[in-house]
């Protein structure tokens, strides 16, 4: 490549010199601006350089090059042949950037939110005393849980709620906390906890802890300081004057039965306990108590826990006037009012101010949720029985968030009347009352209730699991439900549960027996010694994880299949949920997603007999329905006419079908979705619609 300086000059190689041949120093020190306009060869008065417009012509054939002085370059750059392409490039860049920004904003605005971990996976409840005993003392422990983490991976479960393992005298098996910052030695050490949490996180699992704000153990340091009237702690609990010999300042009763007041000799007053007398109620009217409990939340969040199950929240505040609560049956003699169900709890449950306390804690969790990928979850425990609207308050308001969901305990009533219509009613109770846009959840068992396989009957365990895993929202699985564990028989002398000691029929022991891992000694729960804190169910040789893993048709295999399907199929985890049919036997619903031609129909028989369901009036369904999965394995793959869908009692069918006609637009009153999303098959993406 050569550069020419005007006619007749010799071609010059670029590397030959770093100077423009048309450029000359003016007395060795002239500025480039002067030089570019100077007549070459002529000397200029450096004090008054003249800019000669004709001289520029001389340089038009010289191209700019590296090392050329800035001013000369500027001169070139204002020439049209450089300026125009530059401007075109500039505006192209601006336009592209704007288009990209607009596209990004559109994609963000149109993308539905990703499901959070607590939405994508069932919540699995571990009762630590009963899950796995690693040291042979007959009681489960943290190391035992750690040994079994692969079980969650096998089930495709990500969220694990572990019932309390705080330091505790174990009057209520850990729900009576002596120190909220310590681990009970029965369960292990703080180091064991940290290792467990780290290992869970390594495996992609989330740990939800129990948080018990309503009460402490009577062995808690605060209670000892309160009963001795320490100035700071004297109002940490709810105290009132009472008669030492007949200590009943009012008619309030404990959930476990009898008066909720106990006289304390040390202080000479009565204290309130809505559960055991060893579980004094904290006084949340005292801001210091709230602060203490908030600090404890910080403590565990700092350790990295992923969420809390908030225990017995409706009990947190009581009316300060301490008036008697109205009796359900006013004609009943006052002295026979002894159980929770004898009173309307106008002054002890769900008092004004409760939600402000809980929303304050939500705000704390939200701060920690800002860490990338670290959403902190909160679920409430509140049994509100007929008052479902009280339960829904725990979702918060459109402006103030509270829990991600309150536990939905209404399916616990399922065994009262196993029928398609009944199950639909229970499901609808939640769907009809849940605030718009919120996320549902389903519970059929926990450590306070009889096992569903016993109360509903073993016949229904598979169809119940199918219901939970195909409804919209988060299912909860109490340990052992995935293999169909049943209640154990506990003789009076074997009763461990304080509630059972008060009233044997209220004992919660039957549903707390050791997890059945294998056919080995103690069902594999404790393989070191022959000791278990509650008896192992005698069916453990056939009902256990090891055996069921080998059987494709087992309760466990079906649970795993359905959970995998739920997580892999968009209609099942974020599609519409529409009621299709309900009668004395069958409850049927479908799940579909706009834009996706794959949909799912569930036909679940909760009745006592086989049923033939005629779905021919549902024109959105194809005439022939192919069974993807039946709880009755031999029916897998069968093709049914939609006018004759046959199911046995306790049988559930998942039918996958193709359709271009959606059910939801034609039946909006039968359909529900948390957050509308549509599928764009051309790009394989979801968008808000
Ligand atoms: C919750 C727990 C229950 C406990 C009670 C008192 O309801 O689930 O097990 O006994 O609170 O803490």
Automatic annotation (TrEMBL):
It is a single-pass type II membrane protein. Residues 1-51 are annotated as: Disordered. Residues 40-51 have a biased composition (Basic and acidic residues). Keywords: Amino-acid transport, Cell membrane, Disulfide bond, Glycoprotein, Membrane, Phosphoprotein, Signal-anchor, Transmembrane, Transmembrane helix, Transport. Residues 125-512 form the Glycosyl hydrolase family 13 catalytic domain. It comes from the Eukaryota. One of its GO terms (biological process) is carbohydrate metabolic process. Disulfide-linked heterodimer composed of the catalytic light subunit SLC7A9 and the heavy subunit SLC3A1. The heterodimer is the minimal functional unit. Assembles in non-covalently linked heterotetramers (dimers of heterodimers) and higher order oligomers; the oligomerization is mediated by SLC3A1 likely to prevent degradation in the endoplasmic reticulum and facilitate heteromer trafficking to the plasma membrane. Disulfide-linked heterodimer composed of the catalytic light subunit SLC7A13 and the heavy subunit SLC3A1. One of its GO terms (cellular component) is apical plasma membrane. This is Amino acid transporter heavy chain SLC3A1. The chain crosses the membrane at residues 88-110. SMART domains: Aamy (SM00642). PANTHER family: ALPHA-AMYLASE FAMILY MEMBER (PTHR10357), NEUTRAL AND BASIC AMINO ACID TRANSPORT PROTEIN RBAT (PTHR10357:SF179). The keyword Lipid biosynthesis does not apply. It is found in: Apical cell membrane. Gene3D superfamilies: Glycosidases, Golgi alpha-mannosidase II, Oligo-1,6-glucosidase, Domain 2. InterPro entries: GH, GH13_cat_dom, Glyco_hydro_b, O16G_dom_2.
